[in-house]
Fold these 2 entries.
Entry 1:
Amino acid sequence: MSRKRRMFDIDMPDEAVESFPAGKVEAEEKDVRRGPMATAIAETAESSRERSRVEAEIRAENDALAQEHVRLKRAGLITDLIDLDAIDALKLTRDRAPGEDEELKELIQSIREIGLSNPIRVEPAAGGRYELIQGWRRLSAYRALLVETGDVAAWGRIPAGIAARGDELEQLYRRMVDENMVRKDISFAEMAQLAIRYAADPQTAEGDPEKAVAILFRSAGYQKRSYIRNFIRLMEALGDSLLHASQIPRALGLALAQKLDEIPAAAPAIRAELDGWDARGVSDELDVLRRYAGQGALAEGTPPEPKSAPAPAAKARTTFQIQRPQGSAKCTAANGRLEVRLPRDFSAVDRRKLEAAVRTMLESLE
């Protein structure tokens, strides 16, 4: 018995026909329908490429920032607050004369009222410390304010430009000199004293103060350098006995230097008159110097009568160097003074040992 087929008419919507195409699936549909493992691998690769690109950009930016930091540091434009106790002022011999500094008082008052407008300049040293390059008076003002107020939060740290190491000592001296040359109050005596100390510094190559003038005061004119050299002779002969050397006028200093060259006995006579007279003022000291320079009561060309017997005429100064394991020791011998400069901290030597060594040396010279 045969079975009859039944036919049914089914109406299919057009959307369904388009949604289920017959034949091969297009490539883009394959991508959409790929498995979860393939999708994860693709996403990981893309993420890795993006991370590498970002890291390369960060490295390039860091390199640029590092180069800029080095440039700014070399120029002393990197500024930070530095503890006063971490700053040493030993590398350069300052050109400020000892004694009361009226301008320092004005600077202290200005900093107290409006703050510090110009940071000091330092360079990194060993052990986390810093060496002062510029700004001795500003540093002194901060230290004075700290002692006066005891306010560590306000005055215990000072703004400082941190320079990179590497500048030669001669260049550091030149910067200090040029900075102070623009100040109207720096005297010929102070400039001469700086040249003397520069020559005595064991770390400098030049041991003759008069030759050091050409190094330190290269920016000054020939005539000014000549005046400084005259004051060098004056300071070498009388420096330790003068309380107000910075107040000596140029004309008086030049006349007195010439007089000391002409009359060797004048120097010990001036020292004898000034030594022990600690209460003298500026005018008192200048009056004495004017007399010996022939600008006062004494007749020009007549050697003054000293209060005590003058020392035998000798060379104004003798200098020599001795090579030691610590470096070159610069020795300066003058009338009433024997100085040894060596890159070593003698304060760290036991006092009894140091005293015995000096006593032995002095006894060997008798």
Entry 2:
Amino acid sequence: MNIHLFRKAWNWDSCLLPVDDNTFDLILQFRVRLVRIEPTSHFYASGTYGTGNGILHDTDANFHLQPWTDLEWETYKREFVGVIRNHWNEKFILSPNKPWYRPRLGSALTAANVQCSLSIQLVETSAQAHQTYRIIHPRETSFRSFADPPNRSGMFTHLDLESSWNTRMTRMGTVVHSVSFLQTTVSHEFGHTMGLNHVNGTGNSDSNYGLTLAQRENVMGMGGLLTASHAGPWINRLRSHLINQNHDDTKVHFTGRVADMQLIEYWDNDWQPPTTAPATT
């Protein structure tokens, strides 16, 4: 197996670095430009636009843009990278189905695992950037933030770095309960940037965000839960770093798993404590 340490692409770069004889680190590297949208800004992004009159025109409604203070903007930029990396960085391990890596000439093959890392560098120009995100400060709180992977862009609000609750009727086994899910919007949207779809199919209908509890609590549903399927962006990129040299190499496959324990980030509003039978004498 030949190993290409560095790869460049239009949507992100990556590097695959040996840590020890049994471990590699695959780092997805994003250069991101954050654009400060003011009431006077002129812009167009996937049907959403501003003409400098303080109104953001969206497909569903209009929104009133508020000005940023310098402190708000610098705080947002500083926290943006941390929020996304806290959710996605070093959360998965890719395990091979057989030994594939020879650490030294003449040594035996090892079944080296691959750690999944994420790097984000903020840049100043679109020419430098893999992704360009416009950040708005609307008066209203109902703007639907979005990522637009084909155009390497997106639009988020000043509130999208904070976790918020969404309540939906959700199937829990044989019953339907009102359940509140905690999610950070920018973490969900960055999943789209990496090529992940909604948990229940492509689209923005309520059902695409899930029907069952397991689907709804997924980060690509309405919650924050990571699953093995979310390692897909790293598995896909790994293929461009590992170059098969013989038939045995073609038999090597990697499976993702979540590396750490996770918090439960939902609340069943209709939960009732189990009834206790009265004591008998």
